[in-house]
Design brief:
Pfam families: GGR_cat. This is Digeranylgeranylglycerophospholipid reductase catalytic domain-containing protein. The chain is α+β, with helices and mostly antiparallel strands. 36% of the residues lie in helices and 21% in strands. It has 2 domains: 290 residues, 3-Layer(bba) Sandwich (FAD/NAD(P)-binding domain); 71 residues, no CATH class. The protein has 12 helices and 15 strands. Strand 14 and strand 15 form a beta hairpin. Helix 1 runs parallel beside helix 2 and helix 7 packs antiparallel against helix 12. The longest helix has 24 residues.
């Protein structure tokens, strides 16, 4: 999605664009990141034909104190989801690629780029936009794959079954590990279901954990053959200065830039924003400002996410449950992208606010983020 956004942005700005895709858009099977927020930023009509299936009314969030049969729910809230769709992501990508092709963008499908190709591209093209995920092709070609600081592992699958109890809403469930499970219905009879963990909390058997999550939450259990494994950056996971490599004529966008949300792993709207931002600044001759502009846009989101994540890491579902109840009613995209709205809501609950921000390690994380220390202080 970041690469498509960058191709669209640079094409609109008058650049001659060539887009390289490792797979074929006709056969590409992508079922990760199918809940898309801020879809109005995508230059496609949000129709079923373009892959936008369920105009999501709201996201339901529940917090539990564990995964055992006798677990207790510590909090729940419903968050409106304006400008959000549950999608068939592969169809969205295919439709966007077709639109770009019709506009004259030269698209090379089934084209894997080797490290040798990368170095040739940096000589041949004025600019290479790296949207190859984490670790990025830039890192592999330059021998710096260890420059990323963390990632999450997620399993998800498209399943058929009875989702009439939930549809058209979606549900995220926090279960007292650093991660969560979800069900994103596309129709009343089909949904994307999944589970994700930070590296420190990932289980020994991924599929067993996914099956058990589906069973305890009442969702159809997917087969292993239909299950996708995704690696998601824990944003910020790359030094901002590394998102633009002028000495190699490279700029990184999306997961390659390490900008997914540190708490949820959500990164589609962030990826699209990064692609268009790179094009906007290049058009102004200001690409050197890209790292600072990108990080400043994401900074408050990162800080807020790492604060909330602290209560997952330290196993404190009561505080999380209370925070979810207090924040209910805020648009789901604003929870990530405009955390000041959540903070203002929390200030209405001074006891809860104090329980969250009176902890030294939480304040250390806020201070580390505010002072641009890359690996936030624990």
């Amino acid at each position: 999605m970041a690469g498509l956004a960058a191709a669209a942005g640079f094409d609109d700005a008058g650049f001659v664009v060539e887009l390289y895709e490792r797979q074929s858009y006709d056969s590409k099977g992508v079922n990760c990141g199918e809940a898309m927020t801020a879809v109005s930023k995508i230059p496609l009509e949000p129709t079923v034909e373009n892959g936008f299936l369920n105009p999501l009314p709201a996201m339901e969030v529940e917090v539990y104190d564990g995964i055992d049969a006798d677990r207790h729910r510590t909090g729940a809230g419903t968050f409106p989801a304006a400008d959000t769709y549950i999608t068939d992501r592969n169809v969205v990508e295919q439709s966007w690629a077709e639109q770009l092709s019709e506009k004259g963008v030269d698209i090379h499908e089934n084209q894997s780029i080797t490290r040798t190709d990368f170095h040739e591209f940096t000589d041949e093209y004025d600019l290479v936009v790296d949207a190859t995920g984490q670790p990025s092709l830039s890192s592999k070609a330059l021998g710096t794959t260890n420059e990323y600081s963390g990632y999450m592992v997620a399993l998800n699958s498209d399943v058929e079954g009875d989702f009439t109890e939930l549809y058209p809403n979606s549900r995220i469930i926090l279960e007292n590990y650093t991660g969560y499970s979800w069900a994103f219905p596309k129709t009343s009879q089909r949904a994307n279901v999944g589970i994700g963990w930070t590296v420190s909390d990932r289980p020994n058997d991924y599929m067993k954990a996914l099956r058990e999550a589906c069973e305890r939450n009442g969702w159809p259990v997917p087969s292993q053959e239909r299950t996708n494994v995704a690696i998601i950056p824990e944003g910020p996971s790359l030094d901002p200065d590394r998102t633009h490599l002028p000495e190699h004529s490279v700029v990184r966008v999306g997961d390659a830039a390490g900008i997914a949300n540190r708490l949820t792993g959500k990164g589609i709207s962030q990826a699209i924003e990064s692609g268009f931002l790179a094009a906007e600044l290049a058009n102004r001759g200001q690409l050197h400002n890209y790292p600072d502009r990108l990080y400043q846009r994401m900074k408050t989101e990162y800080i807020f996410a790492t604060v909330v994540r602290y209560f997952l890491e330290t196993r404190n579902p009561k505080v999380l449950g209370a925070a979810i109840r207090a924040a209910a009613g805020i648009d789901i995209e604003d929870v990530d992208r405009s955390p000041s709205t959540v903070l203002l809501r929390l200030l209405r609950h001074p006891v809860l606010f104090a329980r969250i921000f009176s902890r030294r390690r939480v304040l250390n994380r806020v201070y580390g983020g505010m002072t641009n220390q890359w690996e936030l202080i624990d």
